[in-house]
Amino acid sequence: MKLLLILYIGFYVTLLQATEEFSLEKSNIKTENIQNDLSKENMQKWLRHSFGLQPYRANYILPLGIAQKAYADHKLGVVKYDKKEAEIQISLKLQVLKNLCGLNGKYYLSYTQHAFWQIYVYSAPFRENLYNPEGFVVFPIYDNRSIFSVRSLKIAIAHKSNGLPNTQNVAEFDGFNLSKSINYAYIRLRLQHSTLITDFTLLAPFPGKDNLSDNPDLMDYLGYTKIKFTYFYNKNMFTLMGRGNFAKGKGALEATYSYPMHKDKSYFYMKFFSGYVESLIDYNKNITKLAVGFSFSR
Questions:
Q1: Is the separation of the CB atoms in 75 and 165 below 8 Å?
Q2: How far apart are CA 140 and CA 130, in angstroms?
Q3: Are the C-beta atoms of residues 213 and 168 closer than 8 Å to each other?
Q4: Residue 14: φ, ψ to 5°
Q5: Which of 64, 80, 131, 203 lies at a 20 to 30 A Cα distance from 247?
Q6: Half-sphere exposure of 41 (CA within 13 A, CB side)
Q7: What is the pLDDT of residues 104-117, one digit of tens each?
């Protein structure tokens, strides 16, 4: 599996070089003397790589993640999973509306895919893929009266699942259901003090048992509340997130660190996770894991 790791790093370096060469190629194109304003505007958007999509959550490739124990294989024990694996996350958003009700809100659609890849075992299978589409609106708040100034209110609806079939009634799986999913809504309040950003989040599943039918006790481990701190110091960016269900005494802690590398187009990225719901397939397993690699957005 070392070959896959080498190919991954090679792809990363090639991508950076190709992006730089493409930007250099475009830098020689001039638009100052173009008379048609609409043509000029669209050429400038093309030169800026402007096509609507923006990063949402962190986009990263983490070639090495090490957990405290090997992961369980729930797919009939075909492969013995390792405690080492890679992680990939792709997360993008698109603004679709703004100021719909005169409240200066911006409306978005987003999509995040998070993959756990067992590249260090034979055949290198994906342990799980998580699919997370969202629709949300962000309302700006102009508060400068307190030390922690309120900056925005976010209201969102979302779906998260691993896309696997329901196997609860399949004899070979002995009652275990591969399919894991949740439909939910959340509200996030964002505050700022200098270079410290604080996010308070309240989350709840959609009403009705069907929205948690694949994993009826998921909220015992995921929890209804979350707090996240994001702190900038010079070029360094730190995050610390905690969430949980206080009544059940379960939850998770996640910390990340990033530092610019290639002309601020990529970052060294490190992530520490400890607790429940690292992935959906093992949501009720307590996992402690450290992963390192590169991100392309923060």
A1: no
A2: 30
A3: no
A4: -65, -40
A5: 131
A6: 3
A7: 999 999 999 999 99
Q: Which amino acid is at 139?
A: F
Residue 127's nearest CA partner among 89, 50, 72, 57 is: 72
pTM of the model: 0.87
CA atoms within 13 A on the CB side of 42: 4
CA distance 35 to 28: 18
88-136 pLDDT tens trace: 999 999 999 999 888 899 999 999 999 999 999 988 999 999 999 999 9
Q: Give one DSSP letter per residue of 220-244, joined into a string.
A: HHH-SEEEEEEEEETTEEEEEEEEE
CA separation, residue 100 to residues 62, 140, 153, 233 (Å): 39, 13, 15, 36
> Is the distance from CB of 291 to CB of 271 less than 8 angstroms?
yes
Residue type for position 42: N
Alpha carbons within 13 angstroms on the beta-carbon side of residue 137 total: 12
DSSP per-residue letters across the chain? -HHHHHHHHHHHHHHHHHHHHHHHHHHT---TT---HHHHHHHHHHHTT--SEEE-S--EEEEEEEESSPPP--STT-S---SEEEEEEEEEEEEEEE-TTSS--EEEEEEEEEEEE-TTSTT--EEEEEEEEEEEEEEE----SSSSEEEEEEEEEEEEE--PPP-TT-GGGTT-----EEEEEEEEEEEEETTEEEEEEEEEEPSSGGGGTT-TTHHHHH-SEEEEEEEEETTEEEEEEEEEETTTTEEEEEEEEEEE-STTSSEEEEEEEEES-SSSTTTTS-EEEEEEEEES--
Phi, psi at 56, each rounded to 5°:
-110, -85
Q: Are 119 and 4 in contact (CB under 8 A)?
A: yes
Closest CA to 125 of 81, 158, 76, 188: 81
